[in-house]
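S2.1 Query sequence (Putative cell cycle control protein Cwf14/Bud31)
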Amino acid sequence: MPPIRSARNRKPPPEGFEDIEDTLLEFSNKMKDAENAPHDGKKRHEMLWPIFQIRHQRTRYIWDLYTKDSISKQLYDYLLKNGYADAMLIAKWKKTGYEKLCCLPCIQTKETNFNATCICRVPKARLTEGQTVQCVNCGCRGCASSD
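Output structure tokens follow.
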């Protein structure tokens, strides 16, 4: 069995955590509500959409704070290490063409029928007029960077 972590061994959060703690608590409450929401009449994949969207919002909130120099590097690293933000998603946002990426499953080609990315990654200019698109993975309506 792994050793039990006691409260004495944990380091306190870095300076500035108190300023964003209320917002992170709101995201946590939204996540709990989304997890406990009834899913009567929804399809299997539609049940996870609110969870993906809240996780994206929370990660984007932390990334925007960091890029605007509103939080320190130590606090940013602490938030990533403790799971407040998705480090892999942020790593993709740093690359050209992925600035608006909604979730990682949308770019994974192994889980699709034709070994391609998700339909939400197609630029809106490429779609036919009047065609609306919604991602099966997360409910996104378009996250191509060229839109």
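Residues 61 and 67 are 10 Å apart (CA to CA). Residues 16-36+44-94 form one domain.
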